[in-house]
């Protein structure tokens, strides 16, 4: 790459922030004042993170896209950039439950609790998605999506939503249709009434519907849901569903970690 194509870009530096605004002229640098927030891409593969950053910069003119090999490198320059909106952790082909990956997700999600951490991975395996959410990620994006879709999904996470691939929903459907239903994996974790609420939650039913079908007050259903969330250590209904289905995938072997 000819360094003259991108002003002020020193190719000798290991870490390169790319505040580019790419429109008709791909060599036009961004106007710093236009960037109100920033997105940090974390990837220890320099070429991968730089390419992804430039592609994303072409999609989002008001968001400064930064690429770093580690969060420590970003911290050294954080005062130079706009407030952080989200962190995109690109794990590539690594498994979420690899110790180094799981620890990185836990650490980032804990340290940046108010900033969504989104995992970008080559795989869309249901078990890996569940693990990522369990470790604190607020979204899981497979590398099979386009850059524009990736940016929209990041925006969803920034707005407070949680995105998971469609393949995860199909996996959930398979679990729901399986002959072994709730009793075995959830035995000893929930009361009989909570098991009924759990099954309804797994089917995506609203509190009003659950109350009607189980002949309960809606306020009682809310209490059951809160207690279920505490038992599985979840912060919202979506996370509850994924953690519950993780129990079904493991045949109940993950129950001890919830108790």
TrEMBL record:
Transmembrane segments: none annotated. One of its GO terms (molecular function) is DNA binding. Residues 38-158 form the Response regulatory domain. SMART domains: HTH_LUXR. This is Helix-turn-helix transcriptional regulator. It comes from the Bacteria. InterPro entries: CheY-like_superfamily, EvgA-like, Sig_transdc_resp-reg_C-effctor, Sig_transdc_resp-reg_receiver, Tscrpt_reg_LuxR_C. Residues 183-248 form the HTH luxR-type domain. GO terms for biological process: phosphorelay signal transduction system; regulation of DNA-templated transcription. It comes from Rhizobium leguminosarum.
């Amino acid at each position: 790459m000819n360094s003259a194509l991108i002003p002020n870009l020193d190719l000798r530096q290991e870490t390169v922030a790319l505040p580019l605004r790419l429109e008709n002229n791909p060599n036009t640098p961004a106007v710093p004042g236009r960037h109100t927030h920033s997105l940090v891409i974390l990837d220890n593969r320099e070429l991968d993170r730089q390419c992804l950053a430039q592609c994303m910069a072409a999609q989002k003119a008001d968001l400064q896209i930064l690429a770093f090999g580690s969060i420590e490198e970003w911290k050294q320059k954080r005062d130079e950039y706009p407030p952080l909106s989200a962190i995109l952790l690109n794990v590539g082909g690594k498994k979420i439950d690899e110790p180094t990956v799981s620890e990185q997700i836990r650490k980032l999600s804990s340290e940046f609790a108010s900033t969504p951490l989104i995992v970008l991975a080559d795989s869309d395996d249901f078990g890996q998605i569940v693990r990522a959410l369990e470790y604190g990620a607020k979204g899981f994006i497979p590398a099979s999506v386009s850059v524009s879709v990736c940016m929209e999904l990041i925006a969803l996470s920034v707005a407070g939503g949680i995105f998971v691939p469609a393949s995860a929903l199909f996996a959930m459907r398979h679990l729901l249709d399986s002959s072994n239903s709730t009793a075995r994996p959830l035995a000893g974790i929930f009361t009989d009434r909570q098991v009924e609420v759990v099954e309804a939650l797994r089917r995506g039913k609203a509190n009003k519907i659950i109350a009607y079908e189980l002949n309960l007050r809606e306020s009682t259903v809310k209490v059951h849901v809160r207690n279920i969330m505490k038992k599985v250590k979840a912060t919202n209904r979506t996370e509850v569903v994924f953690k519950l289905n993780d129990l079904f995938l493991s045949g109940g072997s993950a129950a001890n970690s919830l108790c």
